[in-house]
Amino acid sequence: MRIIPAIDIIDGKCVRLTKGDYNTKKVYNENPLEVAKMFEDSGIEYLHLVDLDGAKAKHIVNYKVLEQIATKTNLKIDFGGGLKSNEDLHIAFNSGAKQITGGSIAVKDRETFEGWIDTYGAEKIILGADSDDGKVAISGWIEKSNEALIPFIKAYQKKSIAYVICTDISKDGMLQGPSVDLYKRIISECSNSNDTPLKLIASGGISSFDELPVLKEIGCEGVIIGKAIYENKISLSQLEKFL
Predict the structure, then answer these.
(1) Helices 180-189 and 211-218: angle between axes, nearest 10 degrees
(2) Could you give the CA distance from residue 12 to residue 140 in angstroms, rounded to a whole number?
(3) Which of 8, 51, 88, 168 is catalytic?
(4) pLDDT digits (tens, 9 = 90+) for 152-206
(5) 130 is catalytic
(6) Contact of 207 with 228, CB cutoff 8 Å
(7) Residue 127 burial (10 A CB sphere; 0-12, 13-18, 19+)
(8) Is 8 a catalytic residue?
(9) The pTM of the whole model exceeds 0.85
């Protein structure tokens, strides 16, 4: 199972929110590159970089931060937040993203999102399927769509999507443990042999090191860890040993 630390960016700074609420913003470091290098020094290979300004603005904003981390570390970065147009994607990949995550656009503009899959290949596109009480949440989690979570994922598996990040919003930033039952259900129901095999990345609520083997055991391909690292609930040396 891949360990994928998260860096969320507002005004070029490394921050965390609780349940996606911008009013709960807490700045952890003014220099995201410093944080990224710390991860890399601990043997971590992957980074989940989220442009929260972009999510609000509905277009890419913090691509310079992406570019800086991509050129000054060897981390493989997946980048998300406000990617809405072909131009946004072009900027993200040109700035060093290895993969991009599309959430709202996969609900609101399927044609464009499917065009990205065709243009860049499914390996480079991650489906953001964030759960608000079993429905897909969009627009920086401000809106709940009418899309039921599991049928939504399955529909994109048929379009050759493998990588799916699922955050249970009720758990995000709460440090109360991940939605293991939800992930079990997704993995079980999205394992049709005719569809693209699912690579589920768990996100939200990770609060202790002991939760990681559980997520690995149920079949998660990766886990995104944010606040637990910044609040010293999980140490980088523990992650190093796990890796």
Answers:
(1) 10
(2) 18
(3) 8
(4) 999 999 999 999 999 988 887 778 999 999 999 999 999 887 889 999 999 999 9
(5) yes
(6) yes
(7) buried
(8) yes
(9) yes
